[in-house]
Amino acid sequence: MNELLARKEKKIGIIGLGYVGLPIALSFARKFSVIGFDINQSRIALMQKGIDPSNELDHHEFLGRDIQFTSSVEDLKSAHFFIVAVPTAVDDHHIPDLSALKRASETIGRVLKKGDYVVFESTVYPGCTEEDCLPIIESLSGLNVGIDFKLGYSPERINPGDKIHTIEKIVKVVAGCDEIALETIAQVYSSIVEAGIHRATSIKVAEAAKIIENTQRDLNIALMNELSLIFDKMGVNTYDVLAAAGTKWNFLRFSPGLVGGHCIGVDPYYLTYKAAKLGYASKIIAAGREINDGMGNYVAKKVIQHIIQHCQHVKAAKVLVMGATFKENVSDIRNSKVADVVKALEDYYLQVDVTDPYADSESLMAEYGFPLVKEITQVYDAVIITVPHKAYCLLDDVYFASITTVDGLVADIKGIYQHKIYTRTYWSL
User: Fold this and answer.
1) Buried (b) or exposed (e) across 48-79, using 16+ Cβ within 10 A?
2) In 10 A of CB 4, how many CB atoms?
């Protein structure tokens, strides 16, 4: 398979061209012939013009690539090595939503041929690839795994906004339904991954490895958030404590904050869901999720307490939220916990303005029900800096004094203005 792909006698088909799929597709397209498939025709139209709808990749990264962008399933029939990179979300009750993954499996089932390979990259609970996706593929294709086609799993490790840890620079975990599949999949990925390949012993092991990467980070951040709740009651600044503790060589450097995005804030629920199906109720993981999911309301509560103490007319108070994306220096608003802060403030009938140099106002309105303000023209009773965008890191005490009342609060979630705010009340996690 690898030789046929290298000679471009066979093609790679990427299903799902979002934050994960598009970088993978363009990376493979440097050496192979690639078909990039997505059901969103407007996104396809942009990519055909060399534009990344997610604003992660520059135009030059599209140049010189052997790739066809399409929304036609018919075009996928000429591919022989399929990679699935569709989103895996949770619903309002934190139950895994596999609808996109199942639709992708149905698509593959309609175009799969004998000798083809199918590799899933979407983050799932252990067992999902073989228990939920495979039966769909076999049923619609009439083919049998291991005999007629090969199945594999290789967890994505895309980090939005990170220009250092790119696909080529991160060790790639791969797994296959048998030894032949494992070796072939490893060879294909090694063509573009410089950092090396790790061959997992099974598909379930590879799925589990991915899910615990994000669960581990979630729990470490949850610990920091809980510490910040405790230290706040003590009148101790969390970041001062972390700076002191961080002088020890083996202290793990995590910090408190809002935990959103499509990975850390979502993936642990896949693990707790599967555990519950097997009769085990998660304790530590579930507790971490509860703490992190509650931080938006906690931040809003601290701001509201300040406003009640210092504003005569609470309902007339104005709050500015700086930052709407789920992390710094990206346009990604998926599962942004900033929305929790805004909603909690609006529940108290406060006037809330939101600004962000990266986010799209229309997308925020459609997803969360609030737009961005084009300019900061008012004086606010509180300013909440939720995301440490690089443009915000240049601001100082003079700036915040100019946009806040004398009794105004500067709520600095990530502590980027530690010991730099003097003329206004300062608070951080």
Assistant:
1) eeeebbbebbeeebbeebebbbbbeeebbeeb
2) 14
Q: How confident is the model at residue 249 (pLDDT cuts 50, 70, 90)?
A: very high
The domains located in the chain, with CATH, are 2-201 (3.40.50.720), 211-292 (1.10.1040.10), 294-429 (3.40.50.720)
pLDDT class of 108 with cuts at 50, 70, 90? very high
**Is residue 4 pLDDT above 90, yes or no?**
no
Percent of the chain with pLDDT over 90: 90
Kind of pairing, strands 34-37 and 11-15? parallel
Confidence (pTM): 0.92
198 contacts 171 by C-beta, under 8 angstroms: yes
In order of 9, 83, 199, 214, the CA distances from 209 in angstroms are 33, 19, 12, 9
Whether 69 and 47 have beta carbons less than 8 Å apart is answered as: yes
Residue 6: the pLDDT is 84
- Indicate the pLDDT class of residue 160, thresholds 50, 70 and 90: confident
Catalogue the active-site residues.
263
Contact 33, 11 (CB under 8 A): yes
Reading the block at residue 212, the tokens are 């615990």
Cα–Cα distance, 347 to 339 (Å, whole number): 12
Predicted confidence band of residue 126 (pLDDT cuts 50, 70, 90): very high
Each residue of 161-212: pLDDT tens digit?
A: 777 888 899 999 999 999 999 999 999 999 999 999 999 999 999 999 999 9
Query: How many CA atoms are closer than 13 Å to the CA of 358, on its beta-carbon side?
Result: 24
Q: What angle do CA 262, 69, 34 make, to 5 degrees?
A: 90
Please answer whether residues 353 and 319 qualify as being in contact, where contact means their C-beta atoms are separated by less than 8 angstroms.
yes
